[in-house]
Design goal:
Number of domains: 1
Largest sheet: 2 strands, antiparallel
Distance between the termini: 6 Å
Helix content: 25-40%
Order of helices and strands: EHE
Shape: elongated
Radius of gyration: 13 Å
Structural class: alpha+beta
Oligomer: single chain
Number of helices: 1
Number of strands: 2
């Protein structure tokens, strides 16, 4: 099995933290029932 990423990199803790910070902020005030896929577009062949 070989994994490849569309973005050419792996997801970092900073990526996850930035997403969490966004959803905890007023900027996400109208966001409900959202699933966020933080995989950097990784596909496993």
């Amino acid at each position: 099995m070989k994994a490849r990423s569309v973005l050419g990199r792996v997801t970092t803790l900073a990526d996850v933290g930035n997403a969490a910070a966004f959803f905890a902020s007023d900027l996400a005030g109208a966001t409900t029932g959202t699933v966020v896929n933080l995989t950097s577009g990784t596909v496993v062949d």
